[in-house]
């Protein structure tokens, strides 16, 4: 699936819209992480949860670069965590790549988990989120 379908599709989209393939792979990873979270919540046993985690780890860390027609595993992004503004003390993953939502009409700016956001911008956004939650 990845070698014959996903990789050529993302490479083609990248060529057509002038976005680096890495940015698209990061968006795919964001979706896969969301799916993993839901699957774990729906799993009925510890063995099922472990299998989901093992499969996700294999795909994102251990799968051969050949699967992606690349020199490296295209889903292997570093894990960067930031504090969850809605739940103090809890950490959440920063997105692997920017989704470019901030460029759409009506957006309030970059997402709190955007890797393109500076530390100062994130602190300002965090204060806005905390203010919204406490209202």
Automatic annotation (TrEMBL):
Pfam families: FhuF_C. This is Ferric siderophore reductase C-terminal domain-containing protein. It comes from Halalkalibacter akibai (strain ATCC 43226 / DSM 21942 / CIP 109018 / JCM 9157 / 1139) (Bacillus akibai). It comes from the Bacteria. Residues 96-116 form the Ferric siderophore reductase C-terminal domain.
């Amino acid at each position: 699936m990845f070698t014959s379908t996903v990789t050529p599709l993302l490479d083609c989209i990248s060529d057509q819209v002038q976005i680096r393939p890495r940015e698209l792979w990061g968006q795919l990873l964001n979706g896969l992480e969301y799916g993993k979270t839901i699957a774990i919540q729906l799993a009925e046993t510890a063995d099922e949860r472990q299998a989901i985690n093992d499969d996700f780890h294999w795909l994102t860390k251990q799968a051969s670069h050949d699967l992606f027609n690349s020199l490296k595993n295209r889903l292997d992004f570093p894990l960067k965590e930031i504090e969850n503004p809605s739940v103090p003390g809890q950490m959440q993953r920063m997105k692997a790549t920017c989704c470019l939502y901030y460029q759409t009409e009506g957006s309030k700016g970059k997402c709190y988990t955007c890797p393109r956001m500076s530390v100062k911008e994130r602190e300002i956004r965090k204060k806005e989120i905390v203010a919204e939650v406490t209202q």
